[in-house]
Structures are given as structure tokens and as C-alpha cells.
């Protein structure tokens, strides 16, 4: 779910107050519309520091302007200032509890467990009100966008019941109800079917999970993969790779990883999953296929090392994945000793210590779903 909210709420007002003073001194007189427009332009240019000054000036002009508060919250989130952003979002909810779904989507991401579910549901309710007011053909695209966002909110709630709230008495029932609501509002949302596949796996129904994955991929596989509005997000497709590996479909996993690498060849998780897939393929090799197995292990080692190299360069948060990659590199070295040509970055890899004890299961998933009753 990402970063969690916590701590006191004294930080936000100080941040906005400081920005207000700077904006007041440096900005000429603007109308509210001009301030909001300028704020958005600066955000589009990734100038968040100046954008916050204009947003703060708008809040100073009208502290109950929900658009200004929402923009300030988004700017602060982009700048890593979660706490003051939450303050702005909560004030938006207090001023306009029934309209404006965006604030609830953000609050849902930074809340936990049933509180997060509550915010996502409030967002869905707000979107439904907006949807009910769209009646003309000219609003078709807007309606489709709202429906997709509603389906994605249902997916987010399902994932909470599948993980953080999996021990709730009605967790399995809630998963089914939320996914059906998602399909009802947007039958062509790939994320709904992908999440349904995760639920089916947790119910020990792998064949049904495979059917759900097939339905999900069929909805976007033949679309323009360069258009991000037509395909699931990068992170969503990385999750799909993990799901495919759980279903023992390594070929599809590799095909998807090749696509993801073309989009971003500096993603640590993608390189790790490449290595893990090759490693799993090597384990499938029959006795006598020593040459093929050796090549797969060399490929796996190269990918793991690339993941470690990028993690060191990008200050990647090591949540166990890099430790596991290093452990596997050491295991591969014991089977296939590295040669001078295997990797020019050997010194960089050796400089990173491998922990003595690692808590890893057979599968390299980040979060393991609790198995539901069949």
C-alpha cells in the first residue's frame, strides 16, 4: 500500500505557512483561477517548490477552496511530505465529504487496513454521484474513465482483504463481492481479473487462476503497448510476472519481462525477476542437459548482478530482494564458477555482504497471501 500515515499533525501547517509568506512576497495579485492554473502549470513542469507557493497563496485567499487544498496535498506527496499532505486531504474531506473522489483515493493509499477500505469506499461513492450526473453522449469518455477508476478502487479494497485484513472473518466473502462490483462497473478492467487470479490462488484453485490471468491479458495484449492509457501500469505488470511464476508459466513471464525491460532497463525488480525466472528454468532441466542448465544459471547470475548494481546506484530500499539475489549469486558461483568474461562488475558485487541467515521461502514473492478456504 506504500507509505503509511502516522505521527503528529503539526508539521503540515508550518510547511504551508512558510510557503504562503514566500508566495505573498514574490507573487503579484492573482485571481483564484489564475493561482490554480499557475499551480498546475508549475506541477506539470515538476517545479514543486514554486507550485506549493502558489497553492499556499490560493489557500491564503480562501482556506476552504478544496481544489487548492488538493493541489497542495499532491505537491507535498510528490515532495515526500506525507504528513502535511494528509492534513490537506482530511480538510478537503471535512469541507466537501460527498464530492471529489480524488482525496479519498489518496487517503486510502496512505491509510491501513479497514480505515483504508473506508476511504476507498467513500471515493467510489463520490465517483458514483459524478457518474449519475453524466447523461449525454459527449460524456462517454468521462464516464468510461470514472468507471475504470471505480473498478481500480474495488481492486484496491480486494487487495487489502487479501493481505492486511485477511484474518477478518468475512475476508473471502468481501473479496468476492468487491471483485464482482468491479466487473459490474467495468467488465473490461484487466486489474479486476488479475486480482481475481490472486484470490483463486489463495483458495488453492490454480486452474481458475490461470483462466483469470488469460482473461486479464487478453484485454490489453493486442493494444498499443506504447500508450499507457491502454495497458496496466508498469508495477501492475511486474505483479503479473510474479503471478505467472506462481502459476509456473515461465515462458509468458519472460515475454512480459522483455517488454518491461524495453520500457525501463533500470528497474531493479525487473532484473531480479529475470534472474529468478532463469533460475527456475534451470531447476526444470533434466539430467543430461548440463550445458543448457549452465547457460541458464549464467544468465540468472548476470541478471541478479545487474539488479544489485542498479540497487547500489539508485539507493534502492533493500526489503530482502537484493539479499536473496546475492544469496543466489553465491549459490550459482558454487555450481558454475565465474570466469573473467562473465561479469565486469565482480568487485562491486563482492563488496556487498551476503547475510548469514535469510528468511526466504521457495517462492520469491514480496507478500504471501494467506490461503483461504476452498
From TrEMBL:
Keyword Hydrolase in record: no
Gene3D superfamilies cross-referenced by the UniProt entry: Tetratricopeptide repeat domain
Name recorded for this polypeptide: TPR-like protein
Biological process, per Gene Ontology: cell division
InterPro entries linked: TPR-like_helical_dom_sf (IPR011990), TPR_rpt (IPR019734)
Region called Disordered, residue ranges: 1-30, 337-374
GO CC, one annotated term: anaphase-promoting complex
Biased composition (Basic and acidic residues): 1-12
A Pfam family this chain is assigned to: TPR_16
Record key words, sorted: TPR repeat
Bias (Acidic residues) ranges: 340-349, 358-374
